[in-house]
Amino acid sequence: MRLEAISRIVKEPHRALEFSDCEWSSFLSILRESGTMGTFQACSLRAGCLNEFPAVAQRHLNSMRYYSDRQALQVIFECKLISRLLADKEIKPVFLKGAAYTLMKTCNSEGRVYTDIDALVPVAAISEAREILEFNFWRSKEVSNYDERYYRKWAHELPPLWHLRRKTVVDLHHNILPPISGRAPDIHYLLEACTPTDHGMALQPHALFVHSAVHLFMNEDFRNGFRDLVDLYLLADEFGQEKFWADVATLAKAVRAEKEAFYAAVSLRQFFGINVDELIESPQIRTVNTTRPRGVAETIFARALKPHHKNYLSTADKLAIFSAYIRGHWLRMPVHILTMHLSVKLFFSVRDAIFGSHYFEKQDPLELPGRENVRQ
Amino acid sequence: MLIDTGEYLFNLERGAELVGSELGQMYQMRQPHISEHIVDFHISLERPGLIRRFLRPQVTFCCDRSPAFKPVSKRQAFATLEWGMNWCIAAFDHSRLIIHAAVVRNDDVTVMLPASPGSGKSTLSAYLAMSNWQLFSDELAIIEPSNLQLSPMHRPICLKNQSIDLIHSWFPQAEITEPVLDTQKGTVAHLRPANWSTPAPAVPDFIVLPKFRPNQPLEITRLTKAEGFAEVHSHCFNYSTQGKRGFETLTRLINRTIQLQITYGDVGEVREYLEHQLETERAGHAP
Questions:
Q1: Phi first, then psi: what are they for A96, rounded to 5°?
Q2: With contacts defined as CB-CB under 8 Å, which chain A residues touch B2?
Q3: Where are the alpha helices (H) located in chain B, listed in sequence order?
Q4: Terminus-to-terminus CA distance in chain B, angstroms?
Q5: pTM
Q6: Closest CA to A129 of A181, A100, A171, A76
Q7: Most buried of A272, A346, B189, B260 (most Cβ within 10 A)?
Q8: Gap from A214 CA to chain B (nearest CA, Å)
Q9: pLDDT single digits (tens) B166-214
Q10: Do A21 and B92 count as a contact with CB atoms less than 8 A apart?
Q11: Cβ-based burial of A20 (10 A; exposed 0-12, middle 13-18, buried ≥19)
Q12: ipTM of the predicted structure?
């Protein structure tokens, strides 16, 4: 099973009908590791071929879809509650990413699984918003002193807030990029591109696309890169008519994310073979279609956006992932801060490599003793 | 190395050499072979790089090459493998209701034994499994929502602390792994059940909640449906994930079964009761 093939199968689920059992075993493992198993169930259901897959495969696919549907109910509950709590102080949170997909009922929300609820509020309101949530039993998880200073001084978001009883997680943002990067846009462009849903405000589809592109291509951590790329593909597939691309281009320019939109378009063409010329050749994005961004897309993103299943990554892939890691930090921080930050992180990595990765971990008061650290 | 537990097929991709003797003893593994069937979970026991590979060596259970737990001492490799396999089922199989319970079957009676730590469930289910009862599982009752059926799993029984010596003394010829100290659950060993045939899937008839008290004479209390629901609900792994379907499945399960609480001091008396007197509960009290 080649990682390059996975995106084509997501696009054309009928291809999986030809799989041997051995190929199914690999495919399911890659889907699970990359967090796209439920998404593939939804794609194959829409394509009408799910019921023809082997029973074992159907069971796993349907299992993750069931979990995703159940999670969506929880997210709707949380968004409704958070909107109501903050409305008392006239703060209107705009939900982003996964929560927004669920509220907007986009195709890519079907089968999707995510860990946090992301909400955007103006920077002037963020302290008050945090206080309201803390009053209602959300608490910050204990982070290292270094990370706490990082969040306060440089970041565009607060440390995650966990609900004490329900264990749901809220990420409060006041911007979509860290101020320290110098790239943080004027968020009123995003706050204007939102729409009310039944359970809270969410970004409109073209803004979802732009934000997803920014989040993906300015990130340093690409473990969910493939899942996020599939989001972009499904948004393009569902909404990609002419006005949509014009709106994407306009908003991308307003928030100074033309390059990220360009990377998104090139990656979609590379991985899914779809026609994104309307975006690439738009007046706003055309200007960034030069040699270097094309080179970055071809050498780094063409590899780093594959699923990260260790059984299938080549050395070149791992090198690209590391380059993306450095690049992501580079984009978010001035050089002198980056150097210091990477040195500190390197020190911690070496320390953990010697002593073991959990030796110095703070005991988390939210984790009960004896509970395993469940990945989800 | 493929581990076929009947209901789930695991592929232990890496680290099989760390648990080779236990796998041979518990599962009687033959030569590894490429599966002709779809593997449910790809698991591995991974060793860290650098110093922790040699100094107080550790091992980490991974699924799809991604860590599921924090690392444990290398001595605990088999225990972490078994718990990891349970974790894969509980974390990823959302198609069924999963209850923390042992399930045993004798003739045509299927008994589910949900229990908290300290209730003696492990010792009791091990005793039954070595006494001609068929063991479906010592840990996970996996219930199909559409028809309430439980499927048997070929897995060894996890014994803890005093259980290990008790089972040794009752069944000197039993296959038990070398005890491992200082795990999260204390001292742990695994036992191969005497009877590893494959019974057909079955719907539970009785739900029995055991409570061990030293020197306690056998005491049987029949629970009301509401009490039964509350008790079993507290032992479900994935009740909240199952949502409405979880409620409906559990309701049908409680209505279909008779729930009993058994306080006991002697496992022999419990076996005697289950083999000869349990049926009177069903005959004497029509649902």
A1: -120, 165
A2: none
A3: 20-27, 77-92, 121-129, 162-170, 225-233, 239-242, 244-256, 267-276, 278-284
A4: 47
A5: 0.89
A6: A171
A7: B189
A8: 27
A9: 999 999 999 999 999 888 888 999 999 887 777 889 999 999 999 999 9
A10: no
A11: exposed
A12: 0.91
Scan for tokens 């009408």, then name that residue: A48
Type of residue at B231: E
- B50: distance to nearest CA of chain A, Å? 6
Distance from CA of B278 to the nearest CA of A (A): 36
- The pLDDT tens digits of the residues spanning B207-264 come to 999 999 999 899 999 999 999 999 999 999 999 899 999 999 999 999 999 999 999 9
Distance CA A307, CA B64 (A): 12
Long-range contacts of B131-134 (CB under 8 A, 24+ apart): B131/B194, B131/B271, B132/B106, B132/B194, B132/B195, B133/B104, B133/B105, B133/B106, B133/B195, B134/B104, B134/B105, B134/B106, B134/B195, B134/B197, B134/B199
Instruction: List residues in chain A touching B: CB distance below 8 A.
Output: 21-22, 24-25, 28-30, 32-33, 54, 56-57, 59-60, 62-64, 66-67, 70, 73, 309-311, 353-358, 370, 372-376
Which residue among A59, A357, A370 sits closest to B95, beta carbon to beta carbon?
A59
Residues B44 and B11: beta-carbon distance below 8 Å = no
Instruction: Return all residues near A118 (Cβ < 8 A) that are at least 6 apart.
Output: A95, A96, A97, A98, A99, A100, A171, A173
